[in-house]
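ingest -> fold -> write
write: protein_1
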Amino acid sequence: MPPADAAHTPLWVAHQCRRPKTGNASTRAHERREGRPMSGDDGTPGNSGYGRKAFKRSKSHFADRITADGRDGWPVASGRYRLVVSRACPWASRALVSRRLLGLEAALSLAITDPVQDDRSWRFTLDPDDRDPVLGIRYLSEAYDRRETGYPGGVSVPAVVDVPSGKLVTNDYQQITLDLATEWTSLHRPGAPDLYPDALRDEIDEVMAGVYEDVNNGVYRAGFATGQEEYEAACAGVFRRLERLTPRLERQRYLVGDTITEADIRLFTTLVRFDAVYHGHFKCNRWKLTENPVLWGYARDLFQTPGFGDTVDFDHIKRHYYQVHTGINPTAVVPLGPDLSGWLTPHHRQELGGRPFGDGTPPGPVPADEAVPVRGRP
């Protein structure tokens, strides 16, 4: 069964934390070699283009899968691959949460990019010498170029890179987390939850399809709208879907069944960014998450569950959206708010029952070198 996201191709881009490719292929290659920012055919730098024109969503060009049987040439193997993410990106954050819940930290190493990418793509300026210590590259685009030159689309996270060759394997954010749950089982920690249980997949897919279309992607359609009608339609769709989810989550602790599933991960990564960036920056401001008691309680419950909140960096989130999307926020000023202390307040969702990890157990402590800096926590 294909992932739910793939079944619904919207007119506008899902953004997918992608650095758009601009200019012709030879110019892009020369600009990368010379270390100069890439510019569009009209001379407009990539970052300032956000919010000035509508983005059309393109499918992930690199859709190879890493599977138990290695049918695409990429077998599951401990230590072979490196997951590249931005903590700012909701699509990459899905993979961060899944990796933690499943206990894959030792098997799948992690590279974290600077939240403020430049026009050359996601960069490793958080690391010594501005290079990823494992891949030895300064920009994620280098791993893309080692796989294929002149590829369509942009440089996006999450991305999984083959360490021995330095080549990108996949940037298919729709499939990466499903494969972590179903193909990497031999490397799961003892007590890992089943995030995509076979008996519930039809319902999970149905729920995820609606959440993707109206919420995950809807906030971007609103934020990058270039006309009033486009914006109003997208914004209305966001809140219509959230209001449809509210009675469901008033009755039950999780979206599908009585345990955490992939559906919860996909909704959480949008909700956790809602008041910090989507309410103001993307103008999804009919109400704040904190003003919906049910969804606010649900989001806090997940945030306080090991594997969710310990992957969230609010500093990265705010700096990325407000400093990169200069077409929307030309001053690049980052707001001080909102107050984050509420994320740690009691949620009382346990009164609805449910078993967060099913018959399993919570993940262990966050590896010391992956802990979110104090500045990014509530």
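write: protein_2
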Amino acid sequence: MGKHSSAVTRSNNNRRSVYITAVGLLVVSLGAVFVVRSFGSQSGADGFLGGKSCDDPTQVSLSTTPEMQPSLEAAAKSLAGKGGDDGTPCLQFTISGAPSAKVARDIASGSDNRPDLWVPDSSLWVAQADDGQSVPSIAVPSVATSPLVLVGRSANFADTSSWLRALGAADPALLDPLNTSPGALALLAVQSERQKTSASDTQVSQVIVPLAQRLGSMAKPYTDVNALFGRADQDGSKVVVPASEQSFVKYQDEHPDAQLKAIMPATGTLTLDYPMVVTAKDDAETISDAGKALAAELLTDASSQARDQAGFRDALFSPLSGGRGVGDLTQLTKPTGEAIEKALQNWTRLSLSTHSLAVIDVSGSMAEVVGNKTRMQLTIEAASGGLSLFPNSASLGLWTFSTRIGSDGGDYKELVPIAPLSSGQRTKILANLKIQHAVPNGGTGLYDTAIAAVRAVRNQYDSSAVNSILLFTDGKNDDPGSPTLEKTIQTLEGLRDPARPVRIIALGMGPDADAEELRKLAQATGGQSYVARNPGDLRTVFIDALQSR
């Protein structure tokens, strides 16, 4: 994002609609609005008096991200001192600081807090500030920049060939992508670098899906970068933090003993670009001129030195003085509005909490040996590994099925009721998985089990989560006492409620799994089916299943 060179488009005037999630609109404010100060030709909050010919200065309210507020205040004060002299406009700025996501939501919702000018930390927020009547215009593409870097202890940077590999090899602590630019840019960097790495969807999913499950469903997503730096700096920590170079440099200044370093993966990076945005509804041309005048003041020698000391680069991405930061940049292609929308949509979808029932086939065919393990053993390993992908906020239960194995002669057995994944719940599920074995001569009562599982999850429906059944099987229904496939599909379709969806995610294993049968069962509930023909595909299939939320 920003004024890029080479592969990166220089224009920052992309006004295409960017996804605003319902979750994002409901999130509590990221922080209180910071101190408001006035700088102008009359005695303001700081008592500064401007040029003598400025008796009636233009009043301009400006909101900016907190870390940029001191630089803009200094430039506004300097500009006020020249007001009325040599054609310098007479301007009085009232400057406040607030997170970019909050300002975007305020503008989009028609709040009275709408400023005349706005300097967010990234232009990705501009399209999200659409109030239904107009998208704010960009007067100056960038008044400062700061590249996205990855911060952590040196031991956690064994592979810095790409964002994907660096994140996959450590414990990423991502700032909330729906409300912070570094978090959103980290997701976008993983996608943008695929032009260079040719990483597959599966490779990306194996890193992003667990990350979204772990971080996205937190009651309070991360928003304090300094707190994350503190965690990353602890002895033995594997935490790495995608953050702005400016925030890292500032942390270094304040914590000279910190054992942290910042790196830019070899594929390159994206940048925070700090555009000057016109958000006034009236007299937009005058306000635009005021923004341009303030931006020009930021280019003076004195302002440039202050900007550099604060850890910001100029609009051309010149390295910081004194060898600070990561030096020369390699830039990734600027994401399109469509790419931004897709990344935020995916994160929101993958972040939703889970309310699921895992249903494991224990029919006789599960005793068949594949390689040096039985299908039962391979399934248990896949289910156990999949369990680790779910955060503590998820709820999960466990059934097994064959034919006539239930206490009432049914085809399924309830082992662990659906409950939040506390350490105790995880222990119960893992303990029950480990003792499972294939039932000798047991058939596959797939149809009755599928219907019963959907009804069970419907009875415990959680409106705040994705409600689903994870159905593992190696074959097809062979229970002569069960309804036909057509009747089963009719029953599942009859249970379907768009307002309270319960989806079957069917995971077939081995060459005997009937892909068409599983597809029809899952489709009847709005779910998806996957078949792993080889044991090594099971983890990939499980990741794919989580993506079908």
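write: annotation protein_2
The chain is about 35% helix and 20% strand.
The mean pLDDT is 87.
pipeline exit 0
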